[in-house]
Design goal:
This protein is mostly helical and 562 residues long. The chain is built from 21 helices and 4 strands. A 4-stranded mixed sheet has the order 1-2-4-3, with helices on both faces. β3 and β4 form a beta hairpin. The chain is globular and about 75 Å long. It starts with a helix and ends in a 10-residue tail after the last helix.
Length: 562
């Protein structure tokens, strides 16, 4: 039996370990013969009800898999007769050998049929478009959406469980043992486990909610309720589609907010408070909630109305105009958010004169950064998490530092973090990300243009009319797998930008200070210190701590001497 297995078995039985000496515990759990820390390690290793459910589901899936194998072996070719529901899967498996056998022939035919002139390419495009249009009439939309939705949920749940298993490892990874104490590591793991439990339960609830909406045609039911209410109380009929869409949007937002409210409350007042982060009162929480809803209604409603009007007026080429309109709206929000919206939630004050302000202004001047204003924001009003960021266009740039960051880091470390943020500016990372978002937005609208008039899609979900907003809602369900892939690609790009910004700060001469600030922030924010590689690759927009430190300490990246 390995030492790790022995350790886990002992940790799962904390009562039996009480009589053991601190020296024995130190050998089992690592480096610190501290009974309080050992008790915390035992608590982390202890599985709860949610873990029992996960184990039960895993065991159930294994049993189902073997039962299927037995059924296939026993009934073989008669399986569809005994279980008619298995006919599509049986036919697919039966045709697989022939499909693989025909691949070489298909590749040769594709090569020979490849267009050799513009006329042939135009003809091929026309034939492909006609085939695609015919295929859209035959898609079982509701079935596809349910399959896509559950496959995505199963994939992400699997990643969450992998990460959850890593959080239960009480031994620190060797890579972080030299700069993260065992207590800090265990506290971060406990915080991660609590967040993991909430995420797993919330995701399951949301998946169940989505499935119920699709299976029981709740979207057309709600659309009809809104329409009936408008007809009864306002005398507005079906011709007022934009007004009806706005009313539906408001009602759907309120319902969605109410359904997610218990999870938000638990996250803020249980998980965050338990681990020392939450500073909000109930009054502030609900005040923020009311402000968010008002902004959503007063900004979202006219924007939605404008989009629906543009789509209705521009015909089959609407995706070009809708894309351009969304790009303009996104730029407008980027401009007004930090100036008009964010001050509704936080207080921004000029950073006082002193060593820190002088150092940041000197760095900005050194790089030619057009710094107009330098703020400190009262992030501690809501949470003890910390951050710093840069925003603004052209010659009107601003830097914002959280008051919590000033409390947690030295002046040199904060300047190193600002150097990292200015690296994003110097290397045009914001512009690159905005460009990537515009490409993604164009793909979404272009793809939607092929589905907006597809009557079969609306009928599949129980609709007897074809309102644009509802059609886009259904299309988002279909688009979910591709959206997950594009989000993953966006995270890959973001992580690359983070490495480049770290390198930029190091070349400014702040490599040591940046490394120490990253370690401090990881400890203070109780960030994940033992990430599963698949989980982090899929979810993280920033590289894990160890990867960033390794890159900063890379001897091939030397700081500039000037």
């Amino acid at each position: 039996m390995s030492e790790e297995t022995s350790e886990q078995q002992t940790l799962a039985q904390p009562k039996a370990s009480k009589a053991e000496s601190s020296q024995t515990l130190a050998k089992k759990y690592g480096d610190d013969p501290n009974s309080a820390i050992d008790a915390q390690a035992a608590l982390i290793m202890q599985k709860g009800f949610l873990d029992d459910v996960i184990d039960g589901i895993r065991l159930g899936l294994i049993v189902i898999f073997f039962i299927c194998l037995i059924l296939v072996a026993v009934f073989a070719g008669n399986l569809p007769t005994v279980f008619p529901a298995s006919q599509p899967l049986f036919d697919f498996a039966k045709n697989l050998p022939a499909l693989f056998a025909s691949l070489p022939e298909c590749m040769v035919a594709a090569k020979e049929g490849f267009p050799k002139s513009i006329e042939e390419a135009t003809l091929l495009a026309a034939v492909s478009s006609a085939w695609f249009g015919e295929m859209l009439h035959r898609i079982p939309y509701k079935t596809c959406v349910l399959v896509f939705s559950w496959l995505t949920f199963a994939w992400e749940a699997m990643l969450d469980i992998r990460q959850r298993n890593r959080l239960r490892e009480v031994r620190r990874p060797v890579a972080i043992a030299q700069f993260v104490s065992r207590q800090a590591y265990l506290e971060a793991s406990a915080y991660g486990l609590d967040k993991s439990s909430l995420v797993l339960v919330k995701n399951f609830f949301m998946q169940f909610q989505t499935t119920a909406i699709i299976v029981y045609d709740l979207t057309p039911w709600m659309w009809n309720i809104v329409g009936d209410a408008m007809q009864t109380h306002l005398g507005l009929g079906a011709e007022y589609e934009i007004t009806r869409s706005i009313a539906y949007f408001v009602a759907a937002t309120l319902i969605s907010t109410m359904l997610s409210l218990p999870f938000d409350l638990y996250s803020t007042f249980v998980v965050e408070k338990k681990h020392g982060f939450n500073k909000q009162t109930a009054g502030l929480f609900f005040s923020d909630l009311a402000k968010n809803l008002m902004l959503t209604f007063f900004l979202g409603s006219p924007i939605l109305a404008l989009f629906l009007w543009v789509i209705g007026k521009t015909g089959s080429q609407f995706y070009l105009y809708a894309w351009a309109l969304l790009a303009a709206v996104q730029l407008l929000i980027i401009v007004i958010y930090p100036t008009f919206i964010q001050p509704m939630f936080n207080k921004f004050s000029p950073l006082p004169e002193g060593e820190l302000r002088t150092a940041i202004e000197a760095l900005a001047s050194r790089l030619g950064f057009p710094l107009k204003k330098l703020y400190v924001v009262d992030g501690s009003k809501r949470s003890s998490h910390s951050n710093a960021y840069v925003f603004g266009f052209f010659k009107s740039k601003r830097i914002v530092v959280f008051d919590t960051l000033i409390e947690q880091c030295t002046t040199e470390e904060i300047v190193a973090i600002i150097g990292h943020e200015l690296g994003h500016w110097k290397k045009n990372h914001v512009l690159r990300m905005l460009s990537a978002v515009q490409v993604q937005t164009f793909v979404i609208f272009f793809a939607f243009s092929h589905f907006i008039g597809e009557e079969a899609m609306y009928r599949s979900f129980g609709m007897d009319t074809m309102p644009v907003l509802i059609g886009f809602t259904f299309f988002q369900y279909l688009y979910q797998p591709l959206d997950s892939l594009l989000t993953f690609a966006s995270n890959v790009m973001s992580r690359k930008h983070e490495f480049e910004a770290d390198e930029f700060s190091k070349k400014l001469g702040y490599g040591k200070e940046l490394a120490s600030s990253l370690i401090k922030l990881q400890i203070e924010n109780k960030g994940n210190m033992n990430p599963d590689h698949m989980y982090s690759a899929y979810h993280y927009s920033h590289p894990p701590l160890v990867e960033r430190l390794n890159a900063i300490n890379d001897p091939d990246v030397a700081p500039k001497t000037e």
